[in-house]
Amino acid sequence: MNILKRNKLAIILFMIAIVWLLYVVIQDSIKFGISRNDPILLFYHIFSDLDLYFFPLISPLFVIIPTVWQFHRELNSGYITNCLTRMEYKKYIKRLYLKSVKNCWVVPLFVIVAFLICCFLTKGFNVGSEIELYGRYFSPNPEYVKNIAVFMIVFITNIILHSIFYANISLFYCKKNSNLLVNIILSYLTFFVIDIFMEVFVGAYLCARVLNIHYVGDTLNLFVIWQYDKVISLLATVIYAIILVIASLIVLFFIYRDRERTVIAIEK
Fold this sequence. Notes:
Blueprint: H1 2-6, H2 8-32, H3 39-48, H4 55-75, H5 79-83, H6 89-101, H7 106-121, H8 127-134, H9 148-169, H10 180-210, H11 216-220, H12 234-256, H13 259-267
Helix pairs in contact: 2-4, 2-7, 3-7, 4-6, 4-9, 4-10, 7-9, 9-12
């Protein structure tokens, strides 16, 4: 029961996403019938052609909102002052971080449920024949889905890693800003700033134009985990996701490493 109370906002957002998914699938079934015979293609049909097409755009918010809400609420409640009399600062911040980042399950679980629904609604894995019929509408590179098991493992792994990354950047501003809404907005904007910088400057300009290395920009696109069209390789996307998590953790370490500065910033 305590777990449900601590994660109630994440659960509410998850249920909203599920209801939204079911509504889209039912509406599509009523209007057109099930238009794909393969779960992967149906999955991409739902997230590319139907009303869930902009879910990848707002998916960071499904992690940012509950993470900021939980971390920000405790950090600014005054509880930290009492807690630090009984617990080391590093141990307290680590515990608070882990408790808040647990909210990153929302998007990965939603994706898993969405894919299971697609499996239930289709006749089995017929991705080869379906690509021939719907190839021009098919978002992932057909080469990547030849081994469906590997593709799905990479897909879910990247969703999990990126969700941790969303959670990490959502904590960047909680120390110095006492306004919950402002923290959420700043975190969401930071996500897009990082995406533009990595894809446009590092990928398209530095790597493609200066170093003549292609497909780096597409690989560094933070939305590539939903498409997998023109990427260097599936392994490259996983490595990039790991780098994002590690880099964001390093930033968090420098933000919250000093006890005195953290306490002073919170009390302002």
